[in-house]
Design goal:
This protein is α/β, with parallel strands linked by helices. The protein is 46% helix and 18% strand. The protein folds into two domains: 156 residues, 2-enoyl-CoA Hydratase, Chain A, domain 1; 324 residues, 2-enoyl-CoA Hydratase, Chain A, domain 1, CATH 3.90.226.10. Strands 13, 16, 18, 19, 20, 22, 23 and 24 form an eight-stranded mixed beta sheet that branches. A six-stranded parallel beta sheet has the order 11-6-5-4-1-12, with helices on both faces. The protein has a four-stranded antiparallel beta sheet with strand order 9-21-25-17, sandwiched between helices. The longest helix is centred in the N-terminal third of the chain and has 32 residues. The radius of gyration is 26 Å and the shape is globular.
């Protein structure tokens, strides 16, 4: 018994040393960093291929060496830290694959401008350049490229999937209705090409985003807009062609780039390649100590951190809006992240009640979804508004249900390239009789009640069922418009009927129409609402609600602070039992943008199957002309 307890004490001691000593080292390092020494370092900041809006998704990826995944707020905070850090003489931005959408690019560009206004040059060196990369990196002080690199400044490309012909081949008949001529979400199922209204919508979206891209490049490179358009029309450049055209500043290898940094800033300059990043978690499962570290990480991650500082809470609505909580929903596999109404409502309620939370930012990056879930979130924002300031910060997309959850606050921030609006409703189902006939299967049913089969996929809607569904959709649509008018009132520059109908806008267009209030990003929204709450700069913290899921929460498939967890070994080991899973993962690797669009389309189908009426946008991918 004595040996048993002795061994247990040794284990506890090792865990304590492993968990506590690094923290002490970090504290000492932080004190040294704050000591006010002269600028003596260059901060390297990487923008990885995967940038998540919400936080906490990087733990598992980092732990098992699955590549870099960072949250957008963590990225902009690192840039802001480099801007304000007196020890930083310059910044190197590494962005080989830019995992940012148009609105996120705008916010990062503003931070790059602010860094340079502080007298700190920003450098970038790349192996090649895509359009998204160039819109971002055209704002740096010096941009260089590898001699064998290629430059694809090809413009803007918007696409949506249309699957009517596939449904015809399967024997599936779409039966959908919309409120609003411009509400095109159902068109991807009912048509093989866009309607006149949908084309018009996308043309003005493309014009708005493309114009902003040209302006950003013009401002960054300090050249006329006409020259930028000439670059885009040529599209493809070799490295030397790009240098001669003025697209980049230098053609050099990485070693020459590093030599340039040392020549410019001195041989003794410190190149901090992990500036502002926490130490990576590593697991060595081949040794008892490695396993012990793993268990300590699990146990340490399961305990919520407490703070006594006043705070601005950031709450995320990211992905399709659905009811309930994350769990075993099969659509999760296809859609990736989703905005579940229950944890978002709880987070808003917690923010409203917590005396330390003085203000709230609702960060919305969503194409919409469930009517019920959207109303749940909107109602929760009203409760916050009664107690403390709350604003909305729109990300890349905040349309349909994404606009619905935002419309209850007094101040909405959007970037110029944010896609928003889409005030409208879509409803319907897929009738699968033809599919079963092709398979040689007949279904025979008995029903009681005129509309007993209304929600089923056996047949298209009958005339009376269609009339009843239309009445319901009109009520939802009228409620949507009423909620917008109730809060935005005189700020709207047109009658609501001329703004709604499913019309989609860029953030700049929405500002001019009174659908949003200010142009700006997440950091702008945080600073604005903190000022509204009377918080002094540097005297408050920014807190994410709900608390980001820890590694333990991820592996045990639970929400933070939730009891009754069930172990999910497939989260740790992966699943090889489903051929569909493997094929879908391959598609997500080869065509990530299109896979995301198809996932959103399938989520829309899933929502229509369960709710029949939704507030969703048509899936839309905004990208440069290179995969």
């Amino acid at each position: 018994m004595k040996n048993f307890f002795g061994k247990r004490m040794c284990v506890v001691a090792v865990v304590f040393v492993w968990a506590v000593v690094p923290s002490a080292i970090r504290v000492l390092a932080g004190e040294e960093a704050a000591s006010g020494k002269a600028a003596n370092k260059i901060a390297f900041i990487t923008i990885p291929a995967v940038v998540a809006e919400s936080e906490g998704q990087d733990e598992l990826a980092a732990l098992f060496g699955m590549g870099d995944v960072v949250s957008f707020r963590a990225l902009v905070e690192r840039l802001a830290r480099a801007r304000d850090d007196n020890q930083v003489a310059a910044v190197v931005l590494r962005a080989d694959l830019v995992g940012l959408g148009p609105a996120q690019i705008e916010e990062v560009r503003r931070l790059l401008d602010e860094i340079q206004q502080k007298g700190k040059p920003v450098y970038a060196h790349v192996d090649d350049l895509s359009m998204e990369q160039y819109v971002l990196l055209s704002g740096v002080s010096r941009l260089s490229i590898t001699p064998t690199g290629d430059v694809w400044v090809t413009g803007l490309y918007l696409e949506s999937p249309y699957v009517r012909e596939l449904l015809d081949k399967l024997g599936v008949e779409p039966d959908f209705m919309t409120c609003g001529a411009y509400k095109s979400a159902a068109e991807i199922f009912t048509r093989s090409e866009p309607s006149v209204e949908a084309k018009e919508n996308r043309e003005w979206l493309a014009d708005g985003i493309f114009s902003r891209y040209v302006n950003l490049i013009t401002q960054g490179r300090k050249v006329p807009a006409e020259r930028v358009r000439q670059w885009i029309d040529q599209g493809l450049f070799s490295a030397e062609e790009a240098r001669r055209a003025g697209i980049v500043d230098a053609v050099e290898y990485a070693e020459e780039f590093l030599s340039f940094l040392k020549t410019t800033h001195g041989e003794n300059i410190q190149l901090d390649k992990r500036y502002g990043r926490a130490a990576s978690k590593q697991i060595d499962l081949s040794s008892p100590l490695g396993l012990l570290q793993f268990y300590a990480e699990l146990l340490g991650g399961s305990k919520p951190k407490t703070s006594t500082k006043e705070a601005v809470a950031v709450i995320y609505v990211e992905g399709p809006i659905v009811t309930g909580s994350a769990g075993s929903d099969p659509w999760e596999l296809l859609a990736g992240s989703a905005a579940y109404s229950t944890p978002i409502r709880r987070a808003l309620d917690e923010a409203a009640q917590d005396p330390l939370v003085k203000a709230v930012v609702l960060r919305v990056d969503s194409p919409g979804g469930s009517v019920v879930a959207s109303e749940t979130i909107l109602e929760a924002t009203r409760h916050v508004k009664q107690n403390k300031p709350i604003v909305v910060s729109m990300g890349n997309v905040a349309g349909s249900g994404g606009y619905y959850v935002a419309c209850g606050v007094d101040t909405i921030f959007a970037e110029e390239t944010t896609i928003t609006g889409s005030i409208g409703v879509v409803g319907g189902k897929l009738a699968t009789r033809g599919l079963w006939e092709k398979l040689g299967i007949e279904w025979h049913a008995v029903q009681r009640g005129q509309h007993a089969g209304m929600l089923l996929s056996a047949e298209k809607f009958s005339p009376s069922e269609r009339d009843r569904l239309r009445q319901w959709m009109n009520e939802v649509y009228a409620g949507f418009k009423e909620r917008v008018v109730a809060v935005r009132g005189d700020r709207l520059k047109k009658e609501i009927e001329d703004l709604a109908g499913g019309r989609v806008y860029t953030g700049r267009q929405a500002l001019e129409l009174g659908l949003v209030d200010k142009l700006g990003g997440l950091q702008d929204a945080i600073q604005f609402v903190a000022s509204q709450a009377g918080l002094e700069q540097g005297k408050y913290e920014v807190r994410t609600l709900p608390r980001p899921r820890s590694l333990l929460d991820i592996l045990l498939d639970s929400e933070p602070n939730e009891d009754g967890r069930t172990i999910r070994l497939d989260r740790l080991l992966g699943s090889s039992q489903s051929g569909l899973y493997a094929e879908w993962q391959a598609l997500r690797t080869w065509e990530p943008g299109r896979a995301r669009l198809l996932g959103q389309a399938l989520v829309l189908l899933g929502l229509l199957r369960s709710e029949q009426v939704t507030m969703s946008m048509a899936p839309l991918w905004v990208r440069g002309g290179r995969p």
